[in-house]
Amino acid sequence: MFATPLIAQSPPTSCGLYVHVPFCETKCGYCDFNSYSGLEWLTARYGSALRCELSLWSQRVRRPEGVLRIATIYFGGGTPTLLGSGGLKSVLDTCGQVFAVDATAEVTVETNPGVADEIALVELRSAGVNRLSIGIQSFDDGELRSLGRIHTADGARQAWSMARRAGFENLNLDLMYGLPGQPVQSWRDNLEQGLELEPEHISLYALTIEEDTPLGKSIASGRIVELDPDTAAEMYMLAEERLEQAGYHHYEISNWAIPGRECAHNITYWRNRHYLGVGAGAHSFLDSYRLCNLKVPLEYVQTLEGEGDSLPVSDIEQIDEKMAMGETMMLGLRLSEGVSAGDFLRRFGRRPEDVYGPAIEDLRRLGLLTWGGDSLRLTARGRLLGNQVFCRFVG
Ligand code: SF4
What we know:
By secondary structure, the chain is an alpha/beta fold. It is 41% helix and 22% strand. It is built from 15 helices and 15 strands. A 9-stranded mixed sheet has the order 7-8-6-5-4-3-2-1-9, sandwiched between helices. β7 (249-252) and β8 form a beta hairpin. α2 packs parallel to α3 (118-127). The longest helix is centred in the N-terminal third of the chain and has 18 residues, at 43-60. The structure holds iron/sulfur cluster.
């Protein structure tokens, strides 16, 4: 942790704000996020700590012309709605008091259908939240149980209807594929049921097996068998085809949207632009530094409750130009718009092919990358083998 005040030398003119809320009702069997169950007793103190951290940051990232402009706000977790609509509203109010939040800012809150409450959703909507991301994951109750989710498919549909009745016109639906034993037909059914809800945005994630989770241990012991990667790839291609047919724009490897409803906050990350992260374990990218907050919620809260005005930062890393260029390639290639050589030149003084000529040529020969005008993009095959492409630019 840094005892001395950390001050951004040249704060960005505008950035995205991420607020991490690490509370969950129970821990899902596959999840290795910085989230915890059984910490309800800490929520009120956590909300105060968030407000305190926002105020501390606003003093450190001031620009001569005034406070930092915030273009997007994203409450992620965990299950942010466990902070309560009052808790979330007071954090949002603090954001408005200490920063210049754009009048048209996209303000997203993630939620779990198992804790959805219609009155709370109405309160969130009137507090200025204009986008909800609902973690449905599957419409098959057996799959939901195997993932350790706390809701049923019917519960998820009810939560979706509540969100619509509460006035949310911009909803994201999260689904997972590649689950152990999942037949392709079940994935097809999941997609169809998802489309019936008419989401503005859809995020599809392949289940990744993390060693230190109950699911990871079951797979290591042989009790559960991981789905083979070819079937998972088939599911991904099926989704690409079906969602395109349904009119969705496949704007990022794992994300689709009705045109105009792409997630502006996440695009900040993929364009490798600045963001401020508050909350336990949250990351920030400011100036040329990446910072990481204390991960354990109680330590995070106690630091902000203590004397003085130290930020709860536990790690800081300077991003040199080589790293910044590699990350700009890796993140930008996730987007269907790809990496614009002109933008890269304006930012780094060199074109991508001047820095990565041989790697780009190799990947083009392998059919994984292609030039589209001024932009370098993944091909359909490249989207399936993204990690093989990204490792040529970073590491
Ligand atoms: S609800 Fe989300 S953050 Fe919480 S345990 Fe489940 S997957 Fe992890």
